[in-house]
Input
Amino acid sequence: MVESELFEIYGRVALTCRNEKFEVFFKPLIQWFSISVYCPQKGYFAAVFEDITERKKAEEALAASNAKITGILESNKDGFFALDQNWNIAYVNKTAAKIWRVKLERVVGFNFWERFPKLKGSIVEENLRSAMETRKLNRFEVGGIYTHGYYEAKLFPSQEGISVLLGDITERN
Output
C-alpha cells in the first residue's frame, strides 16, 4: 500500500463517517500493522495502529507447515482422508478422491455417512465406529463398495477424529 492509498482511506472515513480496518506491510520498518480508522467528528479521522508483525510471521510459518504436510499427503500413493469426531470429512487427498470417484469440493466439509450412504451397515462402518469409540489403531481389508477395487484400510484415531490410509491391494487378490 502506498501513501496515496492511505490518504484516500483517511479522507473517505472523514467524509463518510464509516470506520475502516485493514492490514498493511510497511517496508521501511519491516513491520505489519493493523490500522483502524474512525471518524470522531465529520471531516476528521483518527487512526489506531497495532503492530501485528509477530502474528503475520506465525501465520506465514503455519501456512508453510500446512503446505509441507499437504505436499506429503498428496505425494502418497495411498489414499488418505481424515474425519473429525462428528464424521465430517476434514481432508481428502487426490488419491482417495480418485478411489471414491468424487471431486474434492463435493466431499470435504460434508458428513461422511451422508456422502457415502452405501457404507452404512458395512465392514467399513463397523471398523470406523469401533476405532472412533476405542481410540485404537485398526486395519482391515474391504472390497470396493463404490469401486471395483480391493483395499487395505489403516485407521489412526486421535483426539480430533480418525485418519485413514487406503492402500489399493486389488492385484494381490
